[in-house]
# Entry
Amino acid sequence: IVVNLFQGVTEPGGATGAVDKALDGAIRDLLANGDIRGDLNKTAMLYPRGAIPARRVIVVGLGPEEKFDPDAVRQAAAAATRKARDAGAHSLASIVHGGGRGGLSLAEAAQAVVEGTILGLYRYDAPGVIPWKGAERQVDSLTLVEFDTAKLAEVEAGAKVGLAVAESTCLARDLANQPANVATPTRLAETAQGIAAEYAMACQVFDREQMAEQKMGALLSVAQGAVEPPKFIVLEHNPDGSEHAPFVLVGKGITFDTGGISLKPVKQMERMRGDMSGAAAVLGAMQAIGAMGLPKRVVALVPATENMPSGAATRPGDIITAMNGVTIEIISTDAEGRLILADALAYALRYEPAAVVDVATLTGAIEVALGHYMTGVYASDDWLWEAIQVAGETAGEPTWRMPLRPMYDRQITTPFADVKNGGGRPGGSVTAARFLAKFVGQHAWAHLDIAGTNWWERDLPYPKKPYYVRGNTGVGVRTLVGVLRGWEGG
Ligand code: BES
Ligand code: MN
Ligand code: ZN
# Structure
């Protein structure tokens, strides 16, 4: 059983107090001796020796009450669950951290406990590819404990959302962690079709020929160097058959980015299998809203291809034409993300969308600007920015607004075409966003550059979160779901 403590508390109350009494003051002893202080994610384990019908008691710290938020719950739940797993526990019962004293709604708190538990237990194990060692230690059941039966319905409702969101985040992590010879564009399309079949969504997948019919010259210019078949995926969720303007999500689906003819250096190129993290986040969000039965119209678009060098590949200096007729001079074939997004954004306008949000590992420059802690957001509208900011904060995926000013356009201006795809080093993530802006017209649009936040390592300078494991973070899924749940259209 998992109970909790805020930092600085000397007399445990609520469920923690009740367990302490049953254990004859054992938790107070830990406090009195300074063994625990309620620091966030710090845990202590007690053995009740029959005093209560649980084999172990874990006390987890929630940190200072002033700094308490849903992400503290998520983190504490993950820390406690890992402690339990490492001790060999298979089933857990946890109180709903923050549902009482923390001031969160019970639904919100229950959601965060479930998310933290599942995300904290996540491991990337690709069956048949990477046999994971030590799989015998895993927690397989979580029970949420609430004393007041009148509140159970709210706990259950929150837990259901948490389950949908967490499992979808794990789907996104799996897709991005898988090697590029497994997570191909075809596999992304099959994943979308699987989601469509499970949750009664509509799904259309264009192959190379159909892309050509749609005049998707920018996407095709990236795909032309690849032998692996590219796919353009359209997934539509509309449970009530609404004819209102939809919310359109767009995810960058470069299943491997070699840089093309503008070849990347050897160092850490294997990480570029994660260059479809935006696509993974969008597919994850679609699975989550499907599982939740969100009664709103949402469309996901995923342009998916490898970016490879070959005799058929695009060259720097080539001029191509995107779906909307805009001509592009290719400066670097490594600035491929903005090209495939250009056609996807132009395609999105067919829906006369209420809003468009794209998610992409677009630039190394955003990693330089913001590091690994915050996602850079470019937004054409304040309401959309605010929705993303709030959802990101609640999700534990903090965001920072970046400038989207036309003055940067000088850097992507060329005498040979309407625009060029490279704007040089200064403000590299801004000029990438300005490039995208040429394809979204006047619609409410936001671009999330997740190149700094999609991947996690254990050591500095990465955030320390007990629900992260090495590899893809699943960033974007929870933020997008939060935005869509709060959105009043559709
Ligand atoms: N996929 C990369 C961006 C990236 C870098 C993602 C590091 C994750 C980690 C993108 O396609 C790219 O190569 N961008 C170039 C753009 C430049 C050539 C204008 C970059 O950032 O260097
Ligand atoms: Mn690239
Ligand atoms: Zn890329």
In short: Residues 152-177 form the longest helix (26 residues). Residues 257, 259, 334, 336 surround manganese (II) ion (ligand 2) (CB under 6 Å). The first strand starts at residue 2 and ends at 5.
